């Protein structure tokens, strides 16, 4: 239980830190998540489109357009022609956005790296595996079948359920 409580404590602290950073940058959480997605895509050398952003955030394309308009107006993002698909655009972080994220998050990332380095080398693989398995479980949450089967609909013959068709 202590391990799970420590994980819950970490998640609460992470969520609160993201709220503070977003507030300090005059953004909402979704704006900050978008900025992080765009910067991560740039670091990976992958162009990111508004449609990809909408899918990753689980929001509509209309909401994404408003979000990107807001971040463009604030000087954090620009839309550019897609390098390989003339019908599409990509979203790119401005130097101002990179500087602001680095300024706000750089020191925290350095401190987090120091904490990670303080974990005994022989324990790192187990800690990383635990965190990855927890992330995988959270990723599956809501995507798995319910624990109790649904009652058959009235008037429907379920006697062939599971039988090959």
Q: Supply the number of structural domains.
A: 1
CATH architecture: Orthogonal Bundle
- Overall geometry: globular
Main structural class: mainly alpha
Question: How much is the average pLDDT?
Answer: 86
Helix content: 55-70%
Distance, first to last CA? 46 Å
CATH topology group: Arc Repressor Mutant, subunit A
Enumerate the strands of the largest sheet in spatial order, edge to edge or round the barrel: 1-2
Gyration radius (Cα, Å) is: 21 Å
Order of helices and strands: HHHHEEHH
CATH superfamily descriptor: Winged helix-like DNA-binding domain superfamily/Winged helix DNA-binding domain
Strand content: 5-15%
Describe the fold and architecture:
- By secondary structure, the protein is mainly alpha-helical.
- It is built from six helices and two strands.
- The protein has a two-stranded antiparallel sheet with strand order 1-2.
- α3 packs across α4.
- 12% of the residues are buried.
- InterPro entries: HTH_MarR-typ (IPR000835), MarR/SlyA-like (IPR039422), WH-like_DNA-bd_sf (IPR036388), WH_DNA-bd_sf (IPR036390).
- It comes from Georgenia subflava.
- This is MarR family transcriptional regulator.
Task: Give short descriptive properties of this protein.
165 residues; mainly alpha; Arc Repressor Mutant, subunit A; two-stranded antiparallel ribbon; 63% helix; globular; disordered C terminus
Quick summary:
This protein has a single domain (9-140), classed as Winged helix-like DNA-binding domain superfamily/Winged helix DNA-binding domain (Arc Repressor Mutant, subunit A). It contains six helices and two strands; from the N terminus they run ααααββαα.
